[in-house]
Amino acid sequence: MRMLLPASVFVLMVSVGMSLQWRELVANWQRLTWNAWLRLLLATFLVPPAVALLLARILPLNLSETAGLFMVAAAPGAPLLTRNLARRGFDMHLAASYQVWGAVMTPIMIPLLVAGAAKLYGRDIWIPPLAVVVQVVEKEFVPLLVGMALAHFTPSFSKKAQPAINILGNCTLTLVFVVLLWKMGPELRRVTPWVVLAAVLLLLAAVASMRLLMSTDPIGVRTLAVSNANRHVGLALLLSGQYIHNRDALPTVASYAIIVALLMLLAPKIFRQKEPAASVAPA
Fold first, then answer.
1. pTM, 2 dp
2. Position 163 pLDDT exceeds 80
């Protein structure tokens, strides 16, 4: 089971890479102004952690629950959105561009965010940026580049194989997710309604911050909003266990994972609406 989860994510990321073009990824970055980049940074890396800390003050969360919620808020860019929503009114290339940018920024921002939050609780915690780089490269960049290389050098094979690879990855991931939920039954039964409420409010804050701060075309706004809500729960759990030494954060992280999985299923219906034909360039 330990090998199946990273293997399924790897396969899905290869599938994503097989459907992307480097020019499209770069074009999304070039369209943003410096002001838009700053607002993107604010919506992605600053608003969610600030909301998590605020919720910890307002709601009766213990230290383990607070740590789990904060780590989820500090870790954007889960590598599972792009392919699943590609044909449902979302911009696949924009989601991939956002994920790559978030992955580049993650080794810089997470250590700073965790160190700053730890000071509020009288603790000194430093996550080595290189440790985050290794995780990002292994889980995201390598399979994405493999998929893009396959699409470039073997286009006919990639076009035929991509649907099967995507189905294999999704089926394996679903199986792993069901088994993990069954094994986590005792831990999940300890989750309080306050943790569930905090996870829902954090997700809503991630969606709202992107919709309020980013001004782009309607499809782009909804893509960024859902991408921002899709936090990297795997990375959050790994870092909370290794560097914050808080293994009891699992129920909180798992609660957010379940809620965001529901969002992925419902997003096409939630964000489906009549949109104007004209697009507004990023401010």
1. 0.84
2. no
CATH hierarchy code of domain 4-270: 1.20.1530.20
| Phi–psi pair at 93, nearest 5 degrees | -70, -35
- Output 257 or 190, whichever has higher pLDDT: 257
Outline where the chain has alpha helix (H): 4-18, 22-30, 34-41, 47-58, 63-74, 92-120, 129-136, 142-153, 155-183, 185-189, 193-213, 218-229, 233-242, 250-270
Q: Which residues 6+ apart lie within 8 Å of 255 measured at CB? A: 188, 191, 195, 196, 199
Q: Would you list the domain boundaries of the chain?
A: 4-270
Cα–Cα distance for residue pair 169/9, rounded to 1 Å: 7
State which amino acid sits at residue 210.
Answer: M
How does residue 279 score in pLDDT terms, banded at 50, 70 and 90?
very low
Backbone angles phi, psi at 129, to 5 degrees: -55, -35
Q: What angle do CA 221, 71, 248 make, to 5 degrees?
A: 140
Give the pLDDT confidence of 36-49 residue by residue, as tens digits: 899 999 999 999 99
